[in-house]
Amino acid sequence: MKKELIKTTSLMLALGMSIACFASCAKADGNAMPASSAAPSETSSADSRTETKVSYTIENIRRFMVGVDDPVELPDGSKKVIVNFDNAATTPALKPVMEEVDTKLKTYGSIGRGFSAKSNISTEIYENTRDKVLSFVNCSYPDYTCVYVNSTTDGLNKLASALITSKKDIVLATRMEHHSNDLSWRDRCKVIYADVDDQGRIKYDEIENLLKKNKVKYVTVTAASNVTGYVTDVHRIARMAHKYGAKIIVDGAQIVAHRSFSMIGNSPDENIDFFVFSAHKMYSPYGGGAIVGLTDELGKHMPKFYGGGTVDIVTDNTVTYKDAPHLYEAGSPNYPGVVGLGKSIDVLNEVGFENISAHEQKLMKKMIDGLKQRKNVVIYGDTDDISDRVGVISFNFTDINSALLATKLANAGAGTRRGAFCAHPYVWRLMGVSNEQARIYEGCDSAKTPGMIRVSFGIYNTEEEVDEFLRLLDQTLENYRNTNHEGTDEEDFDPAF
Ligand SMILES: Cc1ncc(COP(=O)(O)O)c(C=O)c1O
């Protein structure tokens, strides 16, 4: 539905209509050529003729990653191929993604606004990639549309700014959420939370109870946790949300590179209404991501984010907005981000999500079994049934501070993440840190606040890397345990976390 923010007299309205009619005639004469009529791409067809077809598999994908086997300089000046287990934060680039971006930049021109062959080609690629994104999550236009965003955080904030119309609106989130899917809502309306159980899984019954007792407008939930890797049964939650008249938003940041995702459930009430994700977590670090959402719903709202590209006509005192998705895409588009995203979807689909998931489960099991054999380890979440977990494992050792250990591991060539992973309420729960205890650390150096170490796998990681990680871990723990820390800076780090 078109948005009209018009503060005019009826005379001006009538004038505006005749001007709008004139404008649409001008457009038909050639202004802003529609994507479907863009000139065919000589370059891209020439490229595809010379391209040799390569099959991407879980076995060979490491060969197609940028930089993962290149030595990196460590703080002691030595050079080493590092083990990168920080893929939940961001993933390295895929070579085919990088090559696709390089190729498509040869015909880069302004998207949707230019008068040139390059502009037409870029616009066509940009618009067509929307269909690829929709089909990636098993839905299609016109029911759903794809809005390009900069990242999950950007998408969730845009969505929240559009959907929330009153401070009194109620959003139901969970205590498992990343801050992006918590704080985006907190400031704008009332947020109520379903808690997690002792193992850190979402309490589904609590969602239903909260829906029963409150007039919830939106339920927002992560598809997979960035702390424990738990995969949420989002279709079950969709059924509950719809039963009580709410819509469902899913934060897809941690699912898109790990499991196939479907907007469509087993019955219409299980369908997902909005889904948001980032491309840099799926091997395309050029920025970008998407909101996939119900076209009609997106069209009924608009984000509090204004600029070029979103409007039909602006006069001194009127603005007529375009429909979704363009309504949500103020400013010049991120073309490399969209090209990269499209190619990463192709490669991930070719590798196959069943293969990705099976590979990840193998790495998870090996790492968890290995960690369990080390003394003083605490592993968060269910370590017996890992079937509902993507490749994310968070842990601590009771006799060494996690920031110290992560730094020492990094110096030895093992990359992890350490901290509370932008999911503080969830991490505090898993660690048994109360809100009052957490507040003591306000304003503290983040290395001295409670935290965990997280390892997270990508499609290119290997079992040999798990072995190497455990070897470096043993070496680091042994050095630490055999050293007297009295009177050193290390004494300041609380071994309790
Ligand atoms: C579950 C989850 N949601 C949202 C985000 C935010 O993603 P981005 O930083 O790409 O905006 C992350 C990032 O780690 C995440 O793990």
Task: Give your account of this protein's structure.
Helices cover 36% and strands 15% of the residues. The chain has 497 residues and is α/β, with parallel strands linked by helices. 43% of the residues are buried. The protein starts with a strand and ends in a 16-residue tail after the last helix. It is globular, with a radius of gyration of 25 Å. Mean pLDDT is 90; it is low at 1-49. It has two domains: 104-350, Aspartate Aminotransferase, domain 2, CATH 3.40.640; 352-492, Aspartate Aminotransferase, domain 1 (Alpha-Beta Complex). The chain has helices at 10-28, 42-50, 95-105, 117-136, 152-163, 183-186, 204-213, 234-243, 295-300, 335-351, 353-372, 402-412, 424-431, 435-439, 463-481, and strands at 4-6, 72-73, 79-80, 83-84, 144-149, 170-174, 190-194, 218-222, 247-251, 274-278, 289-294, 311-314, 318-321, 377-379, 392-397, 414-415, 417-419, 452-456. The protein is built from 15 helices and 18 strands. The longest helix is centred in the N-terminal third of the chain and has 20 residues, at 117-136. Pyridoxal-5'-phosphate is lined by residues 89, 151-153, 178, 180-181, 222, 226, 251, 253-254, 278, 280.
